[in-house]
Amino acid sequence: MIPLSGFPLVKKGDDIGELVVRTLRSQGLSLESGDVLVVAQSVVSKAEGAVVDLRKVRPSELALRLARKLGKDAREVEVVLREAEEIVRASHVLITRTRHGFVCANSGVDHSNVEEGRVTLLPRDPDRSAERIRRRIKERLGVEVAVIISDTQGRAFRTGSLGVAVGVAGMKPLLDLRGRRDLYGKKLRSTVVAQADALAAAAVSVMGEAAEGTPVVLIRGAVYERGKGSARELVRSRDKDLFS
Prior knowledge:
The chain has six helices and 14 strands. The protein has about 240 residues and is α+β, with helices and mostly antiparallel strands. The strands form five sheets. Strands 1-13-2-8-9 form a five-stranded mixed β-sheet. The chain has a three-stranded antiparallel β-sheet with strand order 4-5-6. The radius of gyration is 19 Å and the shape is globular.
């Protein structure tokens, strides 16, 4: 895993793929076919203008009620509600289902790594964002890589957050090992690995969440299946939800 240090601050309208190429060259790095690039959601959102100025948000009555209950900024709660398809839980934290199908805290709305008084939203179509970056890399450097858009999310039954894939291009997000045999010759019957999430988590562990300024990580030697994929494949369908 190689963090791309020296990545520039991103503003609306920037071409993330082009910035990746420039940063690679400035660091004397090259890409190989099969490499994986993990890009933080925050910089993709900034480039696509998915940033909200809280000073311009007028909270609804529901947002005001939830804000009082949760001890949160009502304007931020309003943004969370606008991004939500449904409220899953509202206790000490607001858990929602986004229009992408992701179940996560605060609809993925984040106030870290953005100017004071602003929040970032998840990209409208993270898979398309990843594909756009992948195509630019292919156009500029002539190599086929996989691209993952990562976000940091908590987990229902474990403390702490980790990286997950919210956008995928150039790879199958799931690695199906069913039918293969283990070290003792036993056939695997139910093993499907969330490889895109595993790579996102690995990248975020070196990307950092504070002032490190390394929103892109190059992963070389990863095991994954090439092809067309979508992060939506990682979302468990409601009929298979074990806990709702």
